[in-house]
Amino acid sequence: MNDMEKTYNPEFEQRIYDFWLKGKFFESHPNPDKEPFTIMMPPPNITGQLHMGHALDQTLQDILTRFKRMSGYETLWLPGTDHASLATEVKIVNTLREQGISKEDLGRERFLEKAWEWKNKYGGRIVEQIKRLGSSCDWSKEAFTMDQNCSNAVQEAFIRYYKKKLIYRGDRMINWCPRCKTALSDAEVEYEEQQSNLWHYHYPFVDGSGYITIATTRPETMLGDTAVAVNPKDPRYKDKIGKMLKLPLTDREIPLIADDYCEMDFGTGAVKITPAHDPNDFEIGIRHNLPQIRVIADDGTMNENAGIYAGLDRLECRKRVVEDLKAQGYLEKIEPYAHKVGTCYRCHETVESIVSRQWFVKMKPLAEPAIKAVKTKKIEFIPKHFEKTYFNWMENIKDWCISRQLWWGHRIPAYYCDKCGEMYVAKSMPTQCKCGCTTFHQDEDALDTWFSSALWPFSTLGYPKKNKNLSYYYPTSVLVTGYDIIFFWVARMIFSGLEFMEDVPFNEVLIHGIVRDEKGRKMSKSLGNGIDPLELIDKYGADALRFSLTINIAPGSDTRFSKEKLESCRNFCNKLWNASRFVIMNIKKGDELDVIPSRLNVADKWILTRLNSVIKEVTINLNKYDFGVAAAKLYDFTWSEFCDWYIEVSKTSLYSNDENQRKHAISMLTYVLTTILKLLHPIIPFITEEIYSKYHKKGDAIMVQDWPSYNRKYIFHKEEKAFEDLIELVTSIRNTRASMNVVPSKKIHIQVLTADNNLFKKFEIYLDKLAGVESVKYLNSADEADKSAVALVTALAQVYIPMGELVDPAKEKERLEKELAQAEGDIAHSENLLNNPSFVQRAPQKVIDTEKAKLEAAQNKYKKIKEQLDALK
RNA sequence: GGAGGUUUAGCUCAGUUGGUCAGAGCACUUGCCUUACAAGCAAGGGGUCAUAGGUUCGAGCCCUAUAACCUCCACCA
Known about the structure:
Blueprint: H1 13-22, E1 36-40, H2 52-70, E2 74-78, E3 80-81, H3 85-98, H4 103-122, H5 125-132, E4 143-144, H6 148-163, E5 167-177, E6 182-184, E7 189-204, E8 211-216, E9 227-230, E10 244-246, E11 253-258, E12 270-273, H7 279-288, H8 314-327, E13 331-344, E14 352-361, H9 364-375, E15 380-382, H10 386-395, E16 400-401, E17 403-404, E18 414-417, E19 423-425, E20 440-442, E21 446-447, H11 449-453, H12 456-459, H13 468-473, E22 476-482, H14 486-500, E23 506-512, E24 515-516, H15 533-540, H16 542-550, E25 559-560, H17 563-585, H18 602-623, H19 627-654, H20 659-680, H21 685-694, H22 717-739, E26 748-753, H23 757-771, E27 773-778, E28 789-793, E29 798-802, H24 809-835, H25 837-842, H26 845-872
Helix pairs in contact: 2-16, 3-4, 9-10, 9-14, 15-16, 16-17, 17-19, 18-19, 18-20, 18-22, 19-20, 19-23, 20-21, 22-23, 24-26
The structure holds one RNA strand.
């Protein structure tokens, strides 16, 4: 029966995963008799490599999925990947560049062929890596944001938005990445603090009446200035408003205008206005009807409007402009200044604000119901405080720029007449324009990746086609993700779901933190502090990694990864392995397994009561997504109660000559072990499945067993207390042995004075194994005790251990006095409370009762210790 | 400039509606190859729960300030 190795070795994980796949245990089908439980996996980028963030995200989702599956839900965890428009395109462009090819050389179609080639070759990597974690998702439904389903959904959504006038095309201020050469949404810009300068220089009035000094962080944009603005109330400039200024380094003249936007106390109070390259200036430009002069080209160099500076990179131009201003006497001072600069979230190049013709989603009408859905608790964030983050973003949202100057992605379904330029938004190219022309060209741009991700909860289920999956699984149950993509993704799924499905995409959003390194730093490529989960799995096993990511985490907070924690979890697996190995090696043919015998001893009743309590707590905590607590409870129960005490105690039965006792012990041990394995399964699926298979029918899978339920029938509070008293007694004896340096092999004899000899006799058989007690002599009174014995006072009994010369009366007296003092302290504490009238009046009866019981116990103990002390004298 | 979070043992973190809540793992000390496990067993040391007030019969837990650190959002040139 026992082919288990002595040390836990997770090499069986691959075999177990194959077993699950073969059994189709992960697959889900709409079942009207069951309630669905659905999770949509946040699709990792096809360019991605598994990192610790994925590992955490996957583990939590898998725990939920496995838990709900065992709890009787029709469980679907739908996996997939994201085409990651920008990230993938950059990757392919780089690969091509190494071969000396540019994407323009290749042309759109050939480029896309290459991209699909790349996707087919590498896009599955991350999926294989996810499988190594043990994720129990339904691979038969695996989706990709650019597969037919999702593309249909994207087209449908775009067209419906457009018809409702929620998508429009226009010239707006957008964020432009000069390296990626595409527009970016506001969410895709990351702000980084940079050390820069505030350059002060002046613009002279045309009429020769002096000059006005402005301060800027971006001198090169002055070439596109079309005004200088001051606050209308600013006394310094009040009478000069409307006058014309000469723009240095150019031959242009610009007006001095008044706008409330200008703060009087910042810089010089005067702001140069560049409507084509700054979002605020853009607004001011519109208010004052100023011309927009673009001076920066798409590639980040200065364009023809920059005169002699044309062709220079914008940063080079900055230097030259400053030099020239200085040479011509305009520059006044340069002040060091730290400010935040927007950078591209992919390549971290400084983004430029540029006025450009792009596609936008009108956000206000969409945000409103999305806010309401959370306010009315149709969607709940866990932890709740993330709702504030969500509201803050949604309430201040601006229109979403969705067009990208990329090829890899969903091409915008807009077509333009070759002759008159009339635009048609449709699923396919129109055949005839109203001008009569029959040739068209499609919009060159692709959509923001997040446009398709936003549809994920229903596009993966076949939307826009009405079908069984969609109606059964939507809305999904819970979305599990990190707080870093609340804006990118969660918020957008919410308004998209409400818009197209007329229902929320999920009922709950479980937000978890990020995995940091042992110093608390974010893991990042640039820091080089990333840890490869695959290496950890190779060395310690996926179960150990999963457990280490689960135990003691608090919802929503970041967690630090440490090797020590991982090792302790691996050790736990080893412990579980060996405890199981022990139980299994004692199973004999014909033994009844996994059943609770009809007659139970005190130890059985204790472990069953404890087990029931653990079932209850683990179930409650998993239901409220408190994985850290659930894992910790299981860790403690398995190790400190089942292994340390119950198994130890049951050895007495297993090794006895009484075959009935052995059978009884095996039934109980397998029952408790199997229950533990089930409870642990969602967290550490591989090892629990492997162990389960060792003593169950071939093909039986623990992953589809029923979740253990709390059973009131097996709650025995009296025996629970009695066994805990035994633990106290044994610990007390061990403590004495240790402090007296009695080697474990040396047996001792004890004398016992107890109120319940029968109860103690039930425990007597354990004492040899647990405390090295060879014989017990029952006393009728303390007087009969050996006078030179060490005396222990416990709830169960007074125990006298004759130690012969080993006992130093002085030391023994000291020990007893210490215990006496402690008992005195306890008594004083309780008495204080109970003598306090307001406590007795206001505290609940339950609290008062326990306090009274405490007092009584302490008084008892005090009395007995006192007797010992007196006897010593 | 707003918003949120964190602060508990040497380290990493748990502490559910205020009433055995002062805990776990690792580290540390001591003794053990006790026939499941040295990735182990047993015993132990170690914390004014950031600071100062307040509410309460009772406060890591609730309230108010303060400090330190972290994160997100925001157009101050």
